[in-house]
Write a structure and sequence with these properties.
Layout: H1 13-22, H2 29-39, E1 44-47, H3 54-65, E2 75-78, H4 82-95, E3 104-107, H5 113-121, E4 126-129, H6 131-140, E5 150-153, H7 156-161, H8 165-174, E6 180-185, H9 190-199, E7 204-207, E8 219-224, H10 230-241, E9 246-249, H11 253-265, E10 270-273, H12 279-290, E11 296-299, E12 314-317, H13 324-331, E13 342-347, H14 351-362, E14 367-368, H15 374-395, H16 399-411, H17 416-428, H18 450-455, H19 460-463, H20 510-515, H21 519-523, E15 534-535, E16 545-550, H22 560-571, E17 581-583, E18 588-593, H23 597-603, E19 608-609, E20 612-613, E21 616-618
Parallel strand pairs: 1-6, 1-7, 2-4, 2-5, 3-4, 5-6, 8-13, 8-14, 9-11, 9-12, 10-11, 12-13
Antiparallel strand pairs: 15-17, 16-18, 16-21, 17-18, 19-20
Helix pairs in contact: 2-3, 3-4
């Protein structure tokens, strides 16, 4: 693959400075193709998977186009979930670090709308938001679109899957006709093509063409981790598998330097390799690695090109690569010359879906694994130390040492067993961090359905029905979860309620199931019908669940979707992890994961469902 650096793309020096500081060495394929086209002013339809660098692909040209002196809204970016909206806004802020006066604000459901209104009144050039909340602001006139010159739909197919088609079309229809419109999507269903035809002018198709990949015979594992526990998990795996030589890959130069520092601080012989190093430094690092003086080589993808070391036993994808081909190149560093090889990938949050896409594209198998427990690592360390001790006993004359130990024992009050245990403790070093040692397997990548992926990110599907709406809000009337999409219908604007026209179809029945993965696939049996009786969501079992009591039921014309939407939207937990919802005339029971129960009760303390105040407590 040809390496194209950001400085070759004609980027503003202030943005280039920020990109360099962020540690990115070379542009990804989607960035190489999209940035010049967008800078020329063309509309774009971009087809690329999550994690390929799309945000920078549209964000860099957008920032160059924004006028910091003009304190009016100039660009709008729509995202399917609040997590993605926050992530995109944060990356744009990092890219605009040296562009004084550029303000980026995310708006999304689940956050107090008055706080967002205050931020918008201060003057903002770029808004990143979910469709429901953007429409709320447009209706309140807190988002004025007269000066918008760029509209971007990020992960458009996901917004389509989540039922935002009408909203996307409504928003685009309200924007100025003379604008640049960009749409990025992993797939191109008919509805997306229709949006392109209706709202774009001669769009340029930018598509990352993948070549057929050959995956080497490497055992591949992945671990779901938190960002702050990555180093600890890697150290545990190094201790458990004891590879003589291993390579770890990071996406940025800064991350390479940070990881090398962490590993060296824990006593590992680690060294780093990235694009800013001079050739002499690279040669020195590689010489130490080839001779075994360096056990762990940490590198970026660009810096690792051309490396040929035959006895690398393990590869760590410390960061999930931005491109599928990078993954294949990385794990191909091991299992050479007939040797066995192993690859470990660390997935944080939504990165599991990028890893799933890699598995599908590469036609490989990435096996989920539990994080090794402290007991596992302790036992391994003890075995290693005892093996070293046995070897020393066999091969070394220890008589002088035995005499010294015996003299000390006679002078003190401790036994030889006490001394041996203390020395063993000293040899094992400091205690490891206390991270999750549940032994629970992460999710199989084969079981991650595309539609469900967004639901697992924390309730964004229901975030649109969140706080701060007034009587004008079509999603609520007199309360946060009122008569809109999950309530009593109001004509054709109500999709899921009991209204008229379009809403005459009861989305509480077949259509609800069709839009969300199927009745049997996801929602289980509905008892006597949706909104009545027992509403059973499929799950592994009731273990680890807490049953909560809510003081409203069927007599208040409440349906399970109202309960589910309220819990997910207010607390931010995924609607998919909520268990059974059992509805009775005057009250409801709902099962939530034990670790989320306190969060749910706190979030629902002041919530309203269908305009009615509720009381929630643990069922006894």
């Amino acid at each position: 693959m040809e390496t194209i650096r950001f400085e070759d793309l004609g980027i503003d020096s202030r943005i280039l400075r920020a990109v360099t500081e962020m540690g990115f060495e070379a542009a990804t394929p989607i960035q190489v193709q999209a940035i010049p086209v967008q800078m020329e002013g063309h509309d774009i339809v971009g087809q690329a998977q999550t994690g390929t660098g799309k945000t920078a692909a549209f964000g860099i040209p957008l920032l160059q186009k924004v006028d910091p002196e003009e304190k009016k809204l100039q660009a709008m970016i729509l995202c399917p979930t609040r997590e993605l909206a926050i992530q995109v806004a944060e990356e744009l802020r990092r890219l605009a670090k040296y562009m004084h006066g550029v303000k980026v604000v995310p708006v999304y459901g689940g956050q107090d709308i008055t706080r967002q209104i205050r931020s918008l009144k201060d003057g903002v050039q770029i808004v990143v938001g979910t469709p429901g909340r953007v429409m709320d602001h447009m209706r309140r006139k807190t988002l004025r679109c007269d000066h918008i010159h760029t509209a971007i739909l990020d992960e458009a197919d996901e917004m389509l899957d989540m039922g935002f088609l009408e909203d996307m079309e409504t928003i685009l229809g309200e924007l100025p006709e003379e604008r640049q419109t960009l749409m990025f999507s992993a797939t191109m269903p008919m509805e997306i093509q229709r949006i392109a035809a209706n709202f774009q002018k001669d769009p340029v198709l930018v598509k990352v063409v993948k070549k057929e990949l050959t995956v080497p015979e490497v055992t591949q594992y992945y671990y779901e981790v938190r960002r702050d526990t990555k180093v600890e998990v890697m150290c545990r795996l190094l201790d458990m598998y004891s590879p003589k030589l291993s390579m770890a890959f990071c996406n940025t130069k800064k991350q390479v330097e940070d990881l090398v520092g962490e590993l060296q601080g824990r006593g590992y012989f680690a060294d780093g390799l990235h694009g800013d190093m001079k050739q002499m430094q690279r040669d020195q690092v590689m010489n130490r690695f080839r001779t075994g003086k360096t056990e762990v080589l940490v590198a970026t993808d660009v810096a690792a090109r051309g490396i040929d070391v035959g006895n690398v036993e393990a590869v760590f994808n410390y960061d999930i690569p931005q491109d599928d081909e990078y993954y294949v190149h990385r794990i191909g560093r091991t299992a050479r010359a007939g040797h066995a090889g192993i690859a470990f990938s660390f997935a944080v949050g939504r990165e599991v879906y990028k890893l799933r896409d890699i598995q599908r594209y590469c036609k490989t198998k990435i096996i989920p694994q539990p994080i090794p427990s402290l007991n596992d690592i302790t036992a391994i360390k003890v075995d290693k130390i005892m093996e070293q001790a046995e070897e020393l006993i066999r091969d070394t004359d220890l008589s002088d040492m035995i005499d010294m130990v015996e003299r000390k024992l006679l002078e003190g009050e401790y036994t030889s067993m006490d001394v041996a245990a203390a020395l063993l403790k000293m040899s094992m070093g400091e205690e490891n961090e206390d991270i999750s040692d549940s032994g629970i397997l992460p999710r199989s990548l084969d079981d991650l359905d595309r539609r469900g992926s967004r639901g697992d990110r924390g309730g964004d599907r229901y975030g649109r029905y969140g706080r701060g709406c007034d009587e004008r809000d079509r999603y609520s009337r007199g309360g946060r979860y009122g008569d809109g999409r999950y309530g009593e219908g109001r004509g054709d604007r109500d999709r899921y309620g009991e209204g008229h026209g379009r809403s005459g179809r009861d989305y509480g029945r077949d259509d609800w199931d069709d839009r969300r993965g199927g009745r049997d696939e996801r929602y289980g049996s509905r008892g006597d019908g949706y909104g009545e009786g027992r509403y059973e969501r499929r799950r592994e079992g009731a273990d680890g669940m807490v049953r909560l009591f809510i003081n409203i039921g069927k007599d208040q014309n409440v349906k399970p979707g109202d309960i589910l939407g309220a819990i997910a939207g207010e607390s931010g937990i995924s609607g998919r992890v909520v268990g059974s919802i059992d509805m009775f005339d005057a009250y409801t029971f709902v099962d939530v994961p034990q670790e989320s129960a306190r969060l749910v009760m706190k979030a629902m303390k002041n919530a309203k469902i269908k305009g009615k105040s509720i009381r929630m407590e643990v069922a006894h």
